[in-house]
Specification:
Number of domains: 2
CATH architecture of the largest domain: Alpha-Beta Barrel
Radius of gyration: 24 Å
Helix content: 25-40%
Number of strands: 18
CATH superfamily of the largest domain: Alanine racemase
Shape: elongated
Oligomer: single chain
Distance between the termini: 65 Å
CATH class of the largest domain: Alpha Beta
CATH topology of the largest domain: TIM Barrel
């Protein structure tokens, strides 16, 4: 293939700061006071599964948390040997591979446990498992009462080793009273079954880690905070931005007063306006729902408003007051100047969806780490835990 142009410069790309990622991991370690399961599901929240897992594989993690066997397989194929934990219920077609590759599932039912035990028995091996307890999420796990009834049977499944127990907090960033009740229910289960019988005890996600005491838990599951966003705004300054989404200016021109911009003519220029067209759109994962809601981009450190509707491949912005802007310039769609949380709010969605919605068309770039990252000297993490 004698193509003289094998790789064209991207119009849209995401710069992933691995030093910032590691900074945030250490913040999570400091606040958790214990061991960590780094949650890397959904392509490490859109940051790139293999590069992220490889970057922090040597960071003394207890587990990588994934959603399915496909993600687990990709981590192993990348040469990463950190233990892998499957965060949700598994289905029958996945379980043989889980046993064969010694990944750790969480169990939500007695039937699931018995099937795993039969596969492990046939393979002549023992499988470490965790018990999932439904303390209020409603997505999976044993109810506390059902778990109490099932424990004698679970303990007699000879090829399963009950290595841990966990639950999940659906409202730690929104409903303190409900969350306190969940924490109390989980610790009541631990007390009844015997805390010391479980090597790993985990409940707290990013919001839980930031706002509540860990109690008898010795493993935490940071997700969003690893990627530089606090689910609780008051802790945001402790974290470093990991992803910066950028696009290229493809065209700059003047439009006269009364000229429509984009589909539906949602915006009509009130005066002569200098408009820059950017090579990014909702086909790249930039949220269309920010259209007309006052979203900005950053060009040379200057905020410039988006005009009209976001289209599939292009976005128009007002650069009338930014005379230095020209074709080919880099534009920050979100990052250190345009917080992704601000963008999510204007799109009436959540940061998790913004990150994981960035499509494969957007090139992920991993600039070399510098010896002294600007966030490396940030003050130690402090918090005022919510009372139990």
């Amino acid at each position: 293939m004698n193509d003289p142009f094998p790789i064209s410069p991207p119009r849209a790309w995401a710069e992933i700061d691995l030093a910032a990622l590691k900074n945030n991991l250490e913040v999570a370690r400091a606040v958790s006071g214990g061991n960590l399961m780094a949650v890397v599901k959904a392509g490490a929240y859109g940051h790139g599964l293999e590069p992220i897992a490889s970057a922090i594989a040597s960071s003394n993690l207890a587990f990588f948390g994934v959603a399915n066997v496909g993600e687990a397989r990709r981590i192993r194929n990348a040469g990463v040997t950190t233990p892998i934990y499957l965060l949700g219920p598994t289905w029958t077609g996945e379980r043989e591979e889980i046993v064969a590759k010694n990944w750790t599932p969480c169990l939500s039912s007695l039937e699931e446990a018995q099937h795993f035990n039969s596969i492990a028995t046939a393979a002549g091996q023992s499988l470490k498992v965790h018990l999932a307890v439904d303390t209020g999420m409603g997505r999976g796990g044993f109810s506390p009462d059902h778990l109490r009834e099932c424990m004698p049977t679970l303990e007699h499944l000879t090829h399963l080793e009950i290595d841990g127990i966990g639950s999940h907090l659906p409202s730690a960033d929104e409903d303190k009273e409900f969350t306190r009740g969940q924490i109390a229910r989980f610790h009541a289960v631990l007390a009844e079954l015997g805390t010391s019988r479980f090597k790993w005890r985990h409940l707290l996600n990013s919001a839980g880690m930031l706002a509540y005491d860990r109690g008898e838990c010795n493993l935490a599951r940071p997700g969003l905070m690893l990627y530089g966003v606090s689910p609780l705004p008051e802790f945001q300054q402790q974290l470093a931005t990991v992803m910066t989404l950028k696009a290229r200016v493809t065209l700059v021109r003047w439009l006269p007063a009364g000229h429509g911009v984009s589909y539906g003519r949602q915006f009509v220029t009130p005066k002569p306006t200098r408009v820059a067209t950017l090579g990014i759109g909702y086909g790249d994962g930039y949220p269309r729902h920010v259209s007309g809601n006052g979203a900005d981009v950053s060009v040379h450190g200057r905020r410039c408003p988006i005009l009209g509707r976001v289209t599939m491949d292009q976005i128009m912005v007002d650069v009338t007051d930014a005379s230095e802007v020209s074709e080919g310039d880099e534009v920050e769609m979100f990052g250190s100047n345009i917080p992704v949380a601000e963008l999510a709010k204007k799109a009436d969605t959540i940061v998790w969806e913004i990150f994981t919605g960035i499509t494969a068309r957007v090139t992920r770039c991993y600039p070399p780490e510098t010896p002294e990252h600007p966030h490396s000297s940030s003050p130690p993490f402090t918090k005022t835990p919510d009372p139990p």
